[in-house]
Design a protein that fits this description.
The complex is a heterodimer of chains A (about 475) and B (about 140). With about 475 residues, chain A is α+β, with helices and mostly antiparallel strands. Chain A has 17 helices and 20 strands. Chain A has a single domain, classed as tRNA-splicing ligase RtcB (Alpha-Beta Complex), CATH 3.90.1860. In chain A, the strands form 5 sheets. Chain A has a 7-stranded mixed sheet, sandwiched between helices. In chain A, strands 11-7-9-8-20-18 form a 6-stranded mixed sheet, with helices on both faces. In chain A, strand 15 and strand 16 form a beta hairpin. In chain A, helix 10 runs antiparallel to helix 11. The longest helix of chain A is centred in the middle third of the chain and has 36 residues. Chain A is globular and about 60 Å long. Helix content of chain B is about 25%, strand content about 40%. Chain B is globular and about 45 Å long. By secondary structure, chain B is an alpha+beta fold. Classes of the chains: A alpha+beta (about 475), B alpha+beta (about 140). At the A-B interface, strand 4, helix 8, helix 10, helix 14 and helix 16 of A face helix 2 and strand 6 of B.
Chain lengths: ~475, ~140
């Protein structure tokens, strides 16, 4: 009966007022449906109201419908800070800086894939490294890695791992400014230099999915995004900046912890340790974070180049015949400077998105020309058993959620609890019976990612669609999953 | 049990509670607990060793750095720690040095589990309760 403690602003927006907790500077808002609101974890309420206490926060601390408990910010958390007197917080971005999603379209249809399923699964698994401590296929020296972290996906284009069309369809064209390799520690470089082109583990994956005609909700927009044939084969990639980004966040969390006293900053949760956005430490972290974001854009691009090689080999078709094109690539763990209306004036703010996706609507200059009429593609990762979804951004997101929306289904239970309920081999069998092939280096990990450990993806999508912060376009059915 | 994995504080990540009769036991058990999230520890050999030397601002900070170091060498050196021989500087000094013993990551020989990305400050606690040292930590997965 949580909803009685909230003030209902609209049917799908629930507010926690500033008197809920001492130190709150703005209200917290949970964006979710009446059905899902009672299921919100108490820890999410504690975490989002802690965010509302951070200096310089504007309007509201927001939690998306897929929100679940993490550390510092809840996962699904969005907050905007003044550049003048606000903060930057690694706990509001996550250790996996620019963890994100890439969606690829192809000219292939399911009937062409069916006889090649096993071969494709095995070749993708052997080509795209995954799991603990995996190394990528690209060998980089320090100079090359410095270039990669400052230029992101652009580095991939220069070195033959990307097409110019790929770059057009990546958030920020795959290069976030002001990346500066001198803001990055030697330890971060050592951790990340051999990991470019790898998936990682946990909930990271590479999935082959089918666009079935009954799950295309907006055919015109889907066509603009390249979903233009029945039973089309789609590929989804979910991963981030690997050990490189994890170490950058670790380094700066400790730096911020030590300089908090100097800036008179206190936080309710030490994981929210921050620095003033305009301080030397804060600006340096922003430059290092941009390096990690670029490494993540490059990482996903390198995986795409591996996928292209495998598909050419398996289907014996040319690039033109296969038509593998990037629909879009989105970051869902990031901080960015964007302009929003505050008290009647447009103001540059530092937007933190932790487990939340940018959702820019039609006409925004930041999105590709091709998508100007419909808005930015928003890629929502589901569980291995349910597949992902494609939405599009809206103007309403600017007003309600600092141009943000959900990023996934959102966990309903811990990994440990899921493993107590089912074995990994049982999940594999169940998926096989549903026509989904899965390959992983660690079978019990499949239990952690079982569908029942997540909210129903259709419910969370329905919530954002109803609020209007993004619009439903299509759902894809999974047929093959490589779990990291 | 010298360490226990827990989901008490988080649904997305994992917690660890470690105890020890002394500082060495606490550090060693917590590190083994951390490694056990990433790999079946029984399958690790002790065919590699490396020195370790860390200094913190205080004991809690040293513990944070210790666990972060185990994660760092897993990625940077593909080294999975199985056992530590470490000495602390005298009481009141937050520093340690010694050697780590373990194995190189090998998917053919090891049951690799879930990667640990980082040590978080969320619910992070190290304390001496009577004669027992106890630490609580949440790892980002």
């Amino acid at each position: 009966m949580k909803k009685e403690r909230f003030r209902q602003i609209t049917p799908n927006i629930w507010e926690i007022p500033v008197d809920f907790k001492q130190g709150m500077l703005v209200p917290a808002r949970i964006l979710t449906s009446e059905t899902l609101v009672d299921g919100i974890d108490e820890r999410v309420i504690d975490q989002i109201t802690n965010v509302a206490c951070l200096p310089g926060i504007k309007k509201y601390a927001l939690c998306m419908p897929d929100g679940h408990s993490g550390y510092g910010f809840p996962i699904g958390g969005v907050a905007a800070f003044s550049l003048r007197d606000g903060v930057i917080s690694p706990g509001g971005i996550g250790f996996d800086i620019n963890c994100g999603m890439r969606l690829l379209r192809t000219n292939l249809i399911f009937d062409e894939l069916k006889p090649k399923m096993e071969e494709l699964l095995n070749k993708l698994f052997s080509t795209i490294p995954s799991g603990v401590g995996s190394s990528g296929f690209v060998e980089l020296n320090r100079k090359e890695f410095n270039e990669l972290m400052e230029r992101g996906a652009e580095w991939c284009l220069t070195n033959g791992y990307a097409t110019s069309a790929d770059l057009e369809h990546i958030e920020n064209r795959g290069r976030l400014e002001p990346a500066d390799h001198t803001a990055v520690s030697e330890k971060s470089i050592s951790r990340g230099i051999n990991q470019m082109g790898t998936l990682g583990s946990g909930n990271h994956y590479l999935e082959v999915e089918i666009a079935t005609p009954e799950n295309i909700y907006d055919r015109e927009t889907a066509k603009v995004f390249g979903i233009d044939r029945d039973y089309q084969v789609i590929l989804a990639i979910h991963c981030g900046s690997r050990g490189f980004g994890h170490q950058i966040a670790t380094d700066y969390l400790q730096i911020f912890d030590k300089c908090a006293k100097k800036y008179g900053l206190t936080v309710r949760d030490r994981e929210l340790m921050s620095a003033p956005a305009k301080s030397e430490e804060g600006e340096r972290y922003f430059r290092a974070m941009a390096c990690a974001a670029n490494a993540a854009f490059a990482n996903r691009q390198l995986i795409v180049s591996g996928i292209r090689r495998v598909l050419k080999d398996v289907f014996k078709k040319s690039d033109e015949e296969l038509g593998i094109e990037t629909i879009y690539d989105v970051a869902h763990n990031i901080a960015k400077i964007e302009k929003y209306e505050i008290d009647g004036h447009m103001e540059e703010l530092l937007i933190h998105r932790k487990g939340a996706t940018r959702s820019f609507g039609p006409g925004r200059p930041e999105i590709p020309l091709k998508y100007q009429s419909v808005g930015q593609p928003v890629i929502v990762g589901g569980s291995m058993e349910t597949g992902s979804a494609l939405l599009c951004g809206t103007k309403k997101a600017d007003e309600e959620s600092f141009g943000s929306t959900l990023h996934g289904a959102g966990r309903t239970m811990s990994r440990m609890q899921a493993k107590r309920m089912i074995r990994g081999d049982a999940v594999k069998q169940r998926m096989k019976e549903s026509g989904i092939l899965v390959k992983t280096g660690y079978m019990p990990g499949l239990a952690e990612e079982a569908a029942f450990a997540y909210k129903d993806i259709d419910d969370v999508i329905e919530a954002v669609d109803a609020i209007g912060i993004s619009r439903r376009v299509a759902r894809f059915y999974p047929v093959m999953n490589i779990k990291g | 049990m010298p360490f226990e994995l827990t989901d008490l504080h988080t649904s997305a990540d994992i917690g660890l509670v470690a105890t020890g009769k002394n500082r060495f036991e606490l550090f060693n058990d917590a590190a083994i607990g951390l490694t056990s999230i990433m790999v079946d520890i029984d399958g690790l050999m002790e065919n590699r060793e490396r020195p370790v030397s860390l200094r913190g601002e205080n004991f809690e900070d040293l513990f944070f750095q210790w666990l972060s170091e185990i994660i760092f060498i897993k990625d940077a050196e593909r080294f999975l720690m199985k056992r530590a021989e470490i000495n602390f500087e005298k009481e009141g000094q937050a520093a340690l040095q010694g050697r780590l013993f373990g194995d190189s990551i090998d998917p053919k020989r090891h049951i690799l589990k879930t990667d640990v990305k980082a040590v978080t400050f969320y619910k992070f606690r190290v304390e001496k309760m009577g004669e027992i040292w106890k630490a609580e930590v949440v790892f980002d997965l």
